[in-house]
Amino acid sequence: MFRIYMRLGLRNLLLYPMRTGLTVLGLAIGIAALTFLSAMNDGWLQNMKVNFVLTQMGHVQVHAKGFEASRRIGDYMHDTSEVDKALQNMPHIQAWTHRIRVSGLASAAGANASVLVSGIESDNEKKVSRLYDFVQQGKWLQEGDKRGVLLGDVLADRLSVGLGDKVVLMAASPAGDIASEVFRVRGLIHSGVMDVDNLLALVPISMAQHWLGLGEGVTDVVIRADAFTSVDGIVNNLKQILDSKRLDSKQFEVLRWQEIDPMAEQWTIFAGVYTWIVLLVVIIVVLAEVLNTMLMSMYDRVREFGLMAALGTGQKQLFAMVVCETLVLVAMGGVLGFVLGAAASLYFGAYGLDLSQYATAFSFMYMSPIVYPELTFNGCARILIAAMLGAVLAGLYPAWKASRLNPAAAMREV
Amino acid sequence: MSDDMLLQATDVCKYYHSGDSDMAALDHVDFQLKKGDFTVLSGRSGSGKTTLLNMIGLLDTPDVGSLDIAGEDVLALSAAKRADFRLQRIGFVFQAYNLIRVLSARENVAYVLQLRGMAKKERLDIADHWLSEVGLKGLEHRRPDQLSGGQQQRVAVARALASQPVLVLADEPTANLDSQHGESLMNLMRDLNERCGMTFLIASHDPVAMAAAKQCVHMEDGNIVSSDIV
Ligand SMILES: Nc1ncnc2c1ncn2[C@@H]1O[C@H](COP(=O)(O)OP(=O)(O)OP(=O)(O)O)[C@@H](O)[C@H]1O
Ligand SMILES: [Mg+2]
């Protein structure tokens, strides 16, 4: 029976090319716009995630237990050899590096500013983060240059220092003493991310260890995975190995990128909410476009529904018939709109949509001003399912009306 | 009910509200049909012909009375069972707008067979057979708007007969036809009645229709006033 419902639906729709055409067009425009918006959202989110992770956070970080919450230098890892050994043989790891993170104060020629001191391994760091790519003036830290420092460009401005100038960095050691060291500016960094440009001071990790009295200790192991999809596997793997080494599992904390910065969690939630809003709008667009058309077409055909009922078509069959017709209508508009929206998404996905004119300040949120819409399978599936759901909803009321007609009364109508 | 009795309507009433008074479209009607009857229900416009046909065709329910068709108390059936009873037992020919406009003549005839779950090849063969029986061979693929009024009525007759119902109900089948086409449609139905033994009940005040009847039943103001074997 399903085939005759489809055939009847399609032919009835083609009987009114103008009405059907306008509805299909309206649907197509709506679905196209929403497909594109959804792809923009996914592209944006993906872009922010990549920027966030690659600027400096990494996909996964290992700390001493409690460091993420306390941010106290006292909560550092005395020995990371078990972690390193575990990472050596683990699949899906692209690179990892060690860091020491501590907040402190910088002063130069009478100006002071708060800084985030980051002790880094100059070679490994290049493989994990993009900080190396952000060097704007001067050079990256060289192996053996114990007193070299790289500063964020805004920070350097505040301190009124340039290449070759001296800077004194002050920070508290685990014992609680304030220790200070003199460094010389070797380079300036510009990333567009506020936390980096306004705060960051990169120094060699060996120098930081010595200066703060950490011995071989570090605060972070920063891991770059080969893809976002590998992150959960790596985290579980690592936790398992560290547990099986009978290390006190309370010794380390293994964090996903989302857990490192609450802002990242916020985006994910926001993006999820946005997705639901888009889907809701899809359903509303379909409802608004289709319900009216279907009701009109229903009223035009009261007699015919009466005839079909008189001939012995059951109420359920009439109901299914109208719902099918609605589905056919939405499928026509939905497929057309989806193809248009997908084409636009693919085009701008390849060439980028440059919003820098409107949004110069995006980068502080890890957003690039050029958006590359991303058409994901899930994104497409969600939109199509929402459209079909809207179609079924739009069909329900007309279908209910059609199936409730009294055949004798319906046949009297002209 | 005796063996050759097909339909027994007893004391059937149907009231419609007009203004603040009730008006009896059927006023205590008793009516029978035997198998193989070819009965024409005549009467002035508004006398209650369509109303009675609708009751018998289970398209509407009487307010009072009982109705027995082929040994079944049809008023006791649920809405779904009534639809099924119509599908299995009754063929309809209406005055106009008989056909589903987006289906071809053959698809219209086959539609009822499809509702009954008949396989595609079989139902199309049967549709073609009945279309040629009513003289429409070669027009199977035309849509209703490509057929004349008389041809459309013939498609409806073919559809009513294709499902081999126990009873065919026709409401003013000739009303939209000129007398020549009206006569040939009536002769067709009479011929099928005689050859296949199907029972017909036809509401019509058309003299052409009455001329073809085996039995004439006359209605006035919701009452049956006379019943004559012709
Ligand atoms: N749905 C309805 N609502 C109100 N009154 C109705 C309704 N259906 C029928 N009637 C009335 O019932 C009476 C009988 O109507 P019916 O249609 O049975 O007459 P008829 O004999 O078929 O007439 P015609 O030859 O014009 O078709 C008429 O007076 C009509 O106005
Ligand atoms: Mg009538």
Describe this structure in words.
- The complex is a heterodimer of chains A (414) and B (230).
- Chain A has 414 residues and is an alpha+beta fold.
- In chain A, 56% of the residues lie in helices and 19% in strands.
- Chain A has two domains: 2-53 and 264-411, no CATH class; 66-250, no CATH class.
- Chain B has helices at residues 49-56, 79-89, 105-115, 120-133, 149-162, 179-196, 207-211; strands spanning 5-18, 21-34, 38-43, 64-69, 72-73, 90-93, 167-171, 199-203, 215-220, 223-229.
- The chains are: A alpha+beta (414), B alpha/beta (230).
- Residues 49-50, 171 of chain B line the site of magnesium ion.
CATH fold annotation of chain B: Rossmann fold
Cα-atom Rg of chain A, whole angstroms? 31 Å
- Portion of residues in beta strands of chain B equals 25-35%
Helix content of chain A: 55-70%
Overall 3D form of chain A = elongated
Element pattern of chain A in H and E = HHEHHEEHEEHEEHEHEHEHHHHEEHH
Strand order of the largest sheet of chain B: 6-7-8-3-9-10
Strand order of the largest sheet of chain A: 2-3-8-5-7-6
- Helix tally of chain A equals 15
Summarize the model shown:
The complex is a heterodimer of chains A (about 425) and B (about 230). By secondary structure, chain A is of the alpha+beta class. Helix content of chain A is about 55%, strand content about 20%.
State the main characteristics.
heterodimer, A: 414 residues, alpha+beta, 2 domains, six-stranded mixed beta barrel, 15 helices, 19% strand, elongated, B: 230 residues, alpha/beta, Rossmann fold, four-stranded antiparallel sheet, 7 helices, 10 strands, globular, binds adenosine-5'-triphosphate, binds magnesium ion
